[in-house]
Amino acid sequence: MPPQEPTHDHGLAGEDLHVTVGRRLRVVGMRYSRSRRVVVDVLATAGRPLTLPEILEAGRPADDRPLAQSSAYRNVGELVDAAVVRRVDSGDDHARFELHESLTGHHHHLVCDGCGRIEDFEVPDEFEARVADLVAAVADRGFRVDAHRFDMVGRCADCA
Amino acid sequence: MPPQEPTHDHGLAGEDLHVTVGRRLRVVGMRYSRSRRVVVDVLATAGRPLTLPEILEAGRPADDRPLAQSSAYRNVGELVDAAVVRRVDSGDDHARFELHESLTGHHHHLVCDGCGRIEDFEVPDEFEARVADLVAAVADRGFRVDAHRFDMVGRCADCA
DNA sequence: CTTCCTGCAAAAGTTTTGCATTAAC
DNA sequence: GTTAATGCAAAACTTTTGCAGGAAG
Q: How distant is the Cα of A106 from the closest Cα of chain B, in angstroms?
């Protein structure tokens, strides 16, 4: 992947993001604490799914105090439950996390087998319409689809 | 998911499978040992992606001696490298493993958020043709696609 | 103020590794 | 016979948890 745009253009920017997240947390009785704000900031800035060690690393200079590891694990888990963060599986060792699609817009992933990096990409509406057809088809089999994942796995430009 | 067909109909059956796997391993200088055979048998019989604990559990009565945990981990890793096994991410805690698509045929997954089970499903050729279009599109961005994943996530009939 | 969240440190899991023995070929 | 694979047990990691002190609302 050539260095792409810093972040999604379908997503909420800067302060709006925090307002939205804050509201969403309040609704479920959670506080928007400093460390949760750091996690959200780090993920928004990265614009791609990060592993927990990456979040910790990126969160260090983001504020005076470093992010405690246990808090990061706890925060990420709670933010996933609150539909602020989404877990993305990378195929390698670590799970990765990104902002929830309700905040960034629906997208898919290019997963590099070489370096493990994941980049976002969007597909034509026409393709999503085909996916909707499939969702209807499996509903007939008794399976209720809540979400779908479509990832392309291969080699990015750097690892080719 | 209603109890579906026991296994893939596009895949190699019984002895053919072992012959093919044995040949594939020999080519890369690996032996087709008892425990590797058990792992392949377990995955072929399950017909759906299994976690490592599930493989160990299923492999126990499969032969006189139980599968050692360290061997199972090593075997699965080596079989992945040899393109006999494929890793599938389930979204929950454990990674899952299934036979490589070159042995079972190309397919996609229905992932149940409730029980974590993954079932296979196949999509129309027409859909795969659309995927091929997308592969071509990202190739223009410098990303070489080797494989794709398309999973539907939701609730199976039992967990609805 | 009250309740939730943090940070530490310990516990619980999971996966990997070293090495003598066993089994493939 | 050679050489790779196994099995055990220990080590290395990752993730979770309990709890006293601190911060959010």
A: 14
